[in-house]
Amino acid sequence: MDIQTTTADGILTLEFNRLARKNAITGAMYTILADALRAADTDPQVRAILITGKPEIFTAGNDLEDFLHNVGEGAMTESRPVFQFMKALEGCTKPVVAAVAGAAVGIGTTLLMHCDLVYCADNAKFSMPFSQLGLCPEFASSLLVAQSAGYTRAAEKLMLGEPFGAQEAFEMGIVARVLPAAELLAFAQGQAAKLAKLPAASIRTTKALMKRSRAALVKDTIAAENERFSAMLTGAEAKEAFTAFFQKRKPDFSKFD
């Protein structure tokens, strides 16, 4: 399975398990993730959720071949699997822990903004290369990165789209702690286990109260981003970016205003 799901001791673990393709996420994988999150949120036996990848890589983001194959009129509507996953993640009432090793590209970084406890290995590398693809931020990243890291640092990461390391992610507030790679998973599992043993109603209420003030703004930002993302996805700059990617060359945006 490209998404490996296991439940033990009150913890649902969702693991990206497509190493041959750098854990790139397909529509089918998003559907599995969304269904698992929704089921966990109503399952009294699940008290915490852990999202992780492989020691070599968290996820390379969207599988571009799969993603572009489904691009068309209305391609970024809320019925798309990626929307269903992010809606399930953002709306999950139970605590979500993420453990990140290696690269977390695009949606791989964006999804972390919607988790509760995020830990990374010292080999982690984050990037939000939307501008490099002729696109714009997604799923409230334009809001949440700026809130966490401040406008100028968020502008650097979202406008240039360049990778940044574990220590900088910690300084930006994207991750709570940086650990040696060999210790990451055990530590994250331990934190999830602590959450699973605490009063479930207390944890759910605390999470709801912390997210309450931002909920409407996040929803509004996602809608605004999606409107622009959808328009840009079929634009000339994105076409050049994706064509260059598959042709293994640098894109040339000089002819576009």
From TrEMBL:
It comes from the Bacteria. The keyword Isomerase applies. Keywords: Isomerase, Peroxisome. The keyword Isomerase applies. It is found in: Peroxisome. Its main location: other. This is Enoyl-CoA hydratase. It comes from Telluria antibiotica.
